[in-house]
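Entry 14. Structure prediction run on the chain below.
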Amino acid sequence: MNNHIDYSSALANVAQAQAKAILSGGEGLQERLEFIFQNHLKCRPQDFILTAAKNQEKLKRHAHDIKPTTLGMYLKLLQGRSDADKKLEDWGEDGPWIGPLDWFRCTYVSDIGIGFADGEELISQGYNIEIPTPIYLYQEMIYYDGMYYGSWELQNM
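Output returned:
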């Protein structure tokens, strides 16, 4: 009996088994996933990782949980949920105010760009596990900091 399996199928089967094992592990799930991603990201160029970390910090500096008092234009995230597939029975959670902004761009509902009033810029590459951007579009929602926002608006203060 020949039990030959091709590499692609074997890779998919092993990855599926590993995902099931990790996701069924209960306590410590986040730590196990972080360990796996750290090992995965070690194969990436160092400047790639440093740029991703700088982008995360840049966005955190410009995100405000309460309504800002500084004048300017802000991106307000609304109708948030922690699971992208979750159907909301109400309006969902309000997200942060991001800004102040000089500009905001959305291209073909696939990537976004943000120009902050202090001259910094952030360009999202869209959803891609290989490119850890801190904000991106996913299934017509904006992902930011563990939440998916189904509505967003630009507001001038």
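The longest strand covers residues 97-107.
Filed with the rest of this week's runs.
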